[in-house]
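so my prof wants the structure for this chain in the tokens format not the other one, which i didnt know existed until like an hour ago. anyway here's the sequence
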Amino acid sequence: MLTKEFFKTKAGDPKPLTCEVKRKVRFDELDPLNVMWHGNYASFFEDARVAMGIKYGIGYTEFADIGVIIPIKRFFIDYIAPLEFNKEYTVKAILHWNEAPRLDFEYEIYSSDNKLVTRAYTIQMMTDKDKNLVLVKPKFYEEFCKKWQQGLIK
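here's what i got, hopefully its the right format
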């Protein structure tokens, strides 16, 4: 499982936060083999990540409003089975705890019969508008993390 391999948790860390969205493969996302082209998977993860940001108030807009950009530093994907045209999938975003000013996301895509078909993760760093690394969590995100750690956000 990606969590054990890439996200080191320690005693006292809060449980990961989750958000799910439904998504169908569109015709324009297919490759010549009639399955979703591998480069389009990122848009499925983005849909779930954006939904999570809206759900918890920690989305791109909230960071941008205070002058913080959260670019992806690392992106890993494990293709288990292809996604097929016009079939509905559940995309699950999982935000893992991290003491550092960064966002550690894990993703899972499930078929309509609840089979895991794709796993992935991204690590997003925080920078200012001049692309300088942010070394301390922004105040609003630090407050969010305190509530998360206290079990007030689930």
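also thought this was worth mentioning. Residues 15-149 form a domain with the Thiol Ester Dehydrase; Chain A fold (CATH 3.10.129.10).
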